[in-house]
Amino acid sequence: MNWGEIDNMWAFLGVIAFVASNLVITIIGQRKGRERRSEDREQLTATANKVEAVSKKVDTVTADVKVVRGEVKNDHPDDENMRDQLDRMEQQNKLLVQLVESQGVILQEVQERQDDHGRDIRGLRTDMGVLRGEDRDIKREHTDLVRRLNAFIRREHPHADPL
Questions:
Q1: Full-prediction pTM beyond 0.90?
Q2: Transmembrane region positions (predicted)?
């Protein structure tokens, strides 16, 4: 701006109003900036506290993971770790499965034998039923024979004792 160009009072007042308004705007902006900076610091402090809490939790989890890794990883042959225990249990499980399968075969054979015995017993029952029927017939025939013989003896020899 050239001060020599200000030739009247109105131009001078316009320049002063322009400068004053810019000064007021600058001061207001600076105050708002300070307030925002305070809020930003509070938020940064809260965020830093949260990050620190999360960092502590991560450290705890990291320690736990190291313990688990020590149990699972096969890098210490002197002590039995969880991986070795799982391998041993898996092998025992396989042996148990084989044993159960062989027991299943034996049970199948026992079942087949029981089925054979059941058929044999049914056959024996049928035979016993037939024999009972024949025995009844023989008893009936025997009783009939004794009755006829007694009748014959009474008729032919009235004073003799019957059978």
A1: no
A2: 12-29
